[in-house]
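Hi, here's the filled form for the chain we discussed.

Project: internal
Contact: R.S.
Residues: 83
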Amino acid sequence: MSCFDCLSSNQLIIFIAVLALALSDDLDADDLSLLGSVISSIGGLMGTKATKMDHEKESKKEDLQKQIYDLKKQLEEIKHQKQ
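And the returned structure, exactly as it came back:
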């Protein structure tokens, strides 16, 4: 369970808004722009990683399904050979 699971969607939005205000307090426009770019870049990279992880998970699932299918096929062949 992640720390965000205990928050509702509205609570999460409020948390992020408060965090943004706290981080941006006392920053000039240039620093604020740079910080926003860094945070956006981090978000993009995290999204890319999550997509890759989902793809790898799906690939493993497909591989396992193929292995199960192949094993069932081999078992059927063994059964037929013994008859």
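Let me know if anything looks off before we file it.
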